[in-house]
C-alpha cells in the first residue's frame, strides 16, 4: 500500500507520481529548451544565408556575360568596354557601375553615361554622345555642327571624311561649343528631325529662307515651309514617305505648305497624275 506521506511520491493531476520521474522529465525538457536558444537559431539562419550567398556568388547564372551599348556613334564599343573593368565573368551582384562611369565620361565626345545592371547577366550601357553630324561651307572655311546643334569648329581634318549632312544658309555664331545659331526654331528643327528614319537619307538642309525651309532626301525636294508646327510636319513627312515607299512610287517633290493637304509630285515616267493627300 502506498504511503501518502512518503517523500518519494507526490500527487500530480489526481495521480500518484514518482518524484524521480518528474525530475527526469523536467530535466529532459530543460535540456531541449536550452538547445534551441535564440543565439542558436540565429546561427542556423546565418549559416543558411551564407550558404545561399555563396551559391549565388559561384553560380554562372549570376555572372556577367553580355554588354549592351547604345547611343555611341563615334566611340567604338571596344573603347567603352575597356573602361568597364573587364566585367565579363564577374558576379553581377558585386559589380558596382558607378566605379566605372567616370572613366567612360572622360572619353572624347561623351557627355554622360549610365550603366544599368539587368539581372541575371547583362550590363546595359547608355551613352550620351556629342559628335559631328552637319557641316556648312562658310566662305573659304567649312564649319562643323554636332548632333546637338552645337558649333564644333572650322576645318577639322578628322571630320572631313565623315558622311555628314550639309546645311546651307544658316546664320552661324562663332562661340565654339555653343549653339550654332541664335534661332531657337532652327535648333529645335535640327534636333527633332534626327529621330526619324528618313534622316539617314537626308542630303541637305536649306535654312536660308525661314519662310521656306528646304530638305533634300535622296532626290526628293521637300518644301517644308516655315518652322511653325515642326513636330506635326515632321510626322506628316514620315507618313507620306512611308506611304510612297509602300507603293514604290518615284516622286520628285513633297510640298507641306498646304497644311493638312500636302502635295506629292510623282515622276511622270512612273505615274501620270499628282498625288494629293
TrEMBL record:
<dbReference type="InterPro" id="IPR050487">
    <property type="entry name" value="FtsQ_DivIB"/>
</dbReference>
<keyword id="KW-1003">Cell membrane</keyword>
<keyword id="KW-1133">Transmembrane helix</keyword>
<keyword id="KW-0131">Cell cycle</keyword>
<dbReference type="InterPro" id="IPR034746">
    <property type="entry name" value="POTRA"/>
</dbReference>
<feature type="transmembrane region" description="Helical">
    <location>
        <begin position="35"/>
        <end position="57"/>
    </location>
</feature>
<dbReference type="GO" id="GO:0005886">
    <property type="term" value="C:plasma membrane"/>
</dbReference>
<dbReference type="InterPro" id="IPR013685">
    <property type="entry name" value="POTRA_FtsQ_type"/>
</dbReference>
<feature type="domain" description="POTRA">
    <location>
        <begin position="62"/>
        <end position="130"/>
    </location>
</feature>
<protein>
    <submittedName>
        <fullName>Cell division protein FtsQ</fullName>
    </submittedName>
</protein>
<dbReference type="GO" id="GO:0051301">
    <property type="term" value="P:cell division"/>
</dbReference>
<keyword id="KW-0812">Transmembrane</keyword>
<dbReference type="Pfam" id="PF08478">
    <property type="entry name" value="POTRA_1"/>
</dbReference>
<keyword id="KW-0132">Cell division</keyword>
<keyword id="KW-0472">Membrane</keyword>
Amino acid at each position: 500500500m502506498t504511503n501518502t506521506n512518503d517523500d518519494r511520491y507526490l500527487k500530480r493531476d489526481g495521480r500518484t507520481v514518482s518524484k524521480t520521474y518528474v525530475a527526469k522529465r523536467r530535466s529532459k525538457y530543460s535540456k531541449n529548451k536550452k538547445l534551441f536558444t535564440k543565439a542558436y537559431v540565429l546561427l542556423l539562419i546565418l549559416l543558411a544565408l551564407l550558404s545561399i550567398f555563396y551559391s549565388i556568388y559561384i553560380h554562372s547564372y549570376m555572372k556577367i556575360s553580355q554588354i549592351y551599348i547604345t547611343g555611341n556613334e563615334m566611340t567604338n564599343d571596344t573603347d567603352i568596354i575597356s573602361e568597364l573593368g573587364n566585367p565579363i565573368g564577374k558576379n553581377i551582384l558585386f559589380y558596382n557601375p558607378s566605379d566605372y562611369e567616370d572613366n567612360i565620361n572622360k572619353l572624347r565626345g561623351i557627355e554622360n553615361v549610365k550603366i544599368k545592371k539587368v539581372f541575371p547577366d547583362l550590363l546595359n550601357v547608355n551613352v550620351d554622345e556629342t559628335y559631328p553630324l552637319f557641316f556648312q561651307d562658310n566662305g573659304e572655311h567649312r564649319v562643323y555642327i554636332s548632333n546637338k546643334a552645337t558649333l564644333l569648329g572650322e576645318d577639322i581634318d578628322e571630320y572631313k571624311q565623315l558622311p555628314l549632312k550639309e546645311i546651307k544658309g544658316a546664320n552661324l555664331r562663332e562661340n565654339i561649343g555653343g549653339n550654332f545659331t541664335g534661332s531657337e526654331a532652327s535648333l529645335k528643327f535640327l534636333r527633332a528631325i534626327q529621330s526619324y528614319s528618313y534622316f539617314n537619307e537626308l542630303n541637305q538642309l536649306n535654312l536660308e529662307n525661314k519662310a521656306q525651309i528646304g530638305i533634300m532626301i535622296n532626290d526628293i525636294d521637300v518644301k517644308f515651309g516655315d518652322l511653325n508646327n515642326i513636330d506635326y510636319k515632321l510626322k506628316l513627312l514620315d507618313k507620306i514617305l512611308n506611304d510612297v515607299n509602300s507603293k514604290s512610287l518615284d516622286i520628285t517633290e513633297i510640298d507641306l505648305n498646304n497644311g493638312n493637304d500636302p502635295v506629292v509630285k510623282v515622276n511622270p515616267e512612273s505615274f501620270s497624275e499628282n498625288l494629293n493627300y
